[in-house]
Design brief:
Layout (H helix, E strand, L loop, with lengths): L3 E6 L2 E6 L1 E2 L4 E4 L8 E5 L3 E2 L29 E6 L20 H9 L23 H4 L2 H9 L1 E7 L10 H14 L10 E6 L6 E7 L11 E6 L10 H13 L6 E5 L2 E5 L4 E2 L11 H14 L2 H18 L12 H11 L4 H9 L16 H20 L5 E4 L8 E3 L1 H10 L18 E2 L6 E4 H10 L19 H11 L8 H13 L3 H16 L6 H25 L7
Parallel strand pairs: 1-7, 8-12
Antiparallel strand pairs: 1-2, 3-6, 4-5, 7-8, 9-10, 10-11, 11-13, 12-13, 14-16, 15-18, 16-17
């Protein structure tokens, strides 16, 4: 795979090749421009531009980026930045060099949140990809917001970290971190590693620099997450990476510093993850609802999809992989793909057998060898029924799809208040003086275009915890006052009025998707039960989650006849 510099801009991902050199300057050239221009020193990288650039280099004077100093690995460096080409000087025919130190601070200072509901068209031509389209450039408000957006990362495809703790793993981690953060010096002993827990598929390391060097960019603590064994069957890592970059550009995710062969390096958010019984705390859930509402209104699905398309096109071609290979484009396609690879799980067969009265297709297998096929057949027909019944009943958004307690971070001030008062007790947060919503969402592995009501329902199902205590899940009915308050916070935007009718409609919408998370995670856990090395009862969990779907379907078929749903046929 050739070393490449990537530029993700306005929903498009662009590429410039580069290689290592012993020079202390960076030289960027184009064969059709002429004279080379040397740029910022202290990087040790040389980056020749291709003859046909991904955007108009001739009309650009600078390109922010980040390149590790003295790197010996092949690196992909990506940046998500939204600046109009016409904002750069027109007379220059070169691009300035990129320094891992000077540019990092420049990019950091210019990276502001980009929260705009503008529906931005994406340019299609190569030379003009980096410029605003005509319809967008005529809108000053859009151009102003576009200018604020940026996020960047480096890609180390040849770096792999052992998933299990060992001395060799620690050495690999420290060496990689010194490559990513040259300002940390070259002494591996100054890097402290601490393994964190909370997830059930990946390994998570907290890495802290303890050395005497002055860290100019201020990042002394980062997280490293390695992908769990076999999770590539379930998770699109390209999508996760692009989604993280886009979220960071909206200031909705921490910086992603690097992607390596089997994981990510990203920013550490001070605070702690919630406990599952804190999800319903009246002092906490309004923050969660408000943040999720902001997420669904702000993040543009088309920006992620276009960046993902270009990334796959570029890298899969270089790897001689079929570019047109079908990848799931939404939550429905993802579930279908999971069903196709679902192995024979006795627990799932038993769960289906107990609910034959609800099935779209009856189990008619007469010998054990046909059970696996029959299980897939049952679940495929259920998915078809589910999609035809409620598939159009909720707007499609960039869904987080895994909003459990471990993926919601609260600051230490709020944590102390909760611990002192009791995790289920209501507290006053006024004296904490939060200027903005203190809640952060992390872990974007399962982020995918999907119905907003699925994302909300999935979060509510997580109130039960891994022990699956169903009594903790809020009932999706209009008379549930907790749910009404939650929906109020979700719908509230910049002081706008939220009517009782709007809340009623959202609760009805949510209730239609209350069975989908059980269906989704039941199939997921069934696959995990055969590939994961983690000490967790995936088989039992799979059966419990699938029961949720059947119970919801029984409730829904009963309610459908007596309850007026606006979208149900």
């Amino acid at each position: 795979m050739p070393s490449t510099y990537c530029l993700l801009s306005n929903g498009g991902l662009h590429f410039l090749p580069y290689h290592n050199s012993n020079s202390t300057d960076i030289s960027l050239t184009r064969s059709d421009i002429g004279e080379n221009t040397t740029g910022t020193k202290d990087s040790g990288q040389s980056m020749p531009l291709p003859s046909q650039s991904a955007f108009g280099i001739a009309s650009s004077s600078s390109l922010p980026g980040m390149v590790p100093k003295d790197s010996s690995s092949r690196i992909f460096s990506t940046i998500f930045t939204s600046k109009a080409r016409n904002q750069y000087p027109q007379q220059t025919s070169s691009i300035m060099g990129i320094s891992s130190n000077s540019v990092a601070s420049t990019v950091s200072s210019s990276c502001q949140s980009c929260v705009s509901n503008a529906d931005w068209p994406v340019s299609g031509g190569k030379q003009d990809d980096y410029s605003l389209s005509k319809s967008r450039s005529t809108s000053p408000s859009v151009a102003k917001e576009v200018e604020k957006c940026c996020a960047h990362s480096i890609y180390l495809p040849d770096r792999y970290i052992e998933p299990s703790e060992s001395s060799n793993q620690k050495l690999q981690v420290r060496q990689m971190l010194l490559e990513i953060f040259p300002e940390w010096g070259n002494n591996e002993d100054f890097i402290e590693l601490h393994e964190l827990t909370g997830g059930i598929t990946n390994m998570l390391l907290k890495c802290t620099y303890k050395g005497p060097e002055n860290v100019q960019n201020g990042y002394k603590t980062v997280l490293i997450r390695t992908y769990g064994r076999g999770t590539g069957l379930l998770i699109d890592r390209d999508r996760e990476f692009v989604s993280h970059l886009v979220l960071n550009s909206y200031n909705l995710a921490p910086k992603v510093f690097a992607r390596f062969g089997n994981g990510l390096v990203y920013g550490f958010i001070e605070g702690r993850a919630l406990h599952f019984d804190e999800l319903s705390n009246p002092s906490v859930y309004p923050f969660i609802a408000s943040r999720l509402g902001q997420w669904h209104r702000t993040v543009r699905v088309k920006v992620i999809e276009e960046g993902l398309r270009r990334m796959r096109l570029e890298f899969r071609q270089s790897e001689k992989v079929e570019v047109s290979k079908k990848r799931p484009g939404n939550i429905w396609e993802l579930i279908k793909g999971w069903i196709d690879i679902l192995p024979q799980i006795k627990g799932l067969v038993a769960v289906c057998d107990k609910n034959q009265d609800l099935q779209q297709v009856r189990m008619d297998a007469k010998d054990p060898e046909s059970i696996q096929l029959t299980l897939k057949q049952i679940l495929s027909r259920e998915l078809e029924w589910l999609a035809s019944e409620i598939g159009d009943c909720s707007p499609q958004v960039a869904a987080h799809s895994d909003l459990l307690c471990g993926n919601i971070i609260i600051p230490s001030e709020l944590s102390r208040e909760l611990e002192e008062a009791g995790r289920n007790s209501k507290i006053s947060t006024r004296h904490l003086h939060f200027d903005t919503n203190p809640i952060s969402f992390i872990d974007y592995e399962y982020m995918m275009p999907g119905p907003r009501a699925f994302d909300i329902s999935n979060h509510f199902q997580e109130w039960q915890g891994f022990a699956c205590d169903k009594s903790l899940i809020p009932k999706p009915v209009r008379t549930n006052q907790l749910l009404r308050k939650w929906c109020m916070s979700y719908l509230q935007k910049d002081g706008s009025e939220v009517t009782e009718v709007m809340i009623d409609d959202l609760i009805d919408e949510i209730s239609l998707y209350y069975g989908m998370p059980g269906f989704y995670w039941g199939i997921w856990a069934g696959i995990q039960s055969t590939i994961s090395l983690i000490d967790f009862d995936y088989g039992g969990y799979s059966g419990q989650r699938l029961v949720e779907y059947w119970n919801w379907k029984r409730w829904y078929l009963k309610e459908k006849g007596s309850r007026l749903y606006k979208c149900v046929k």
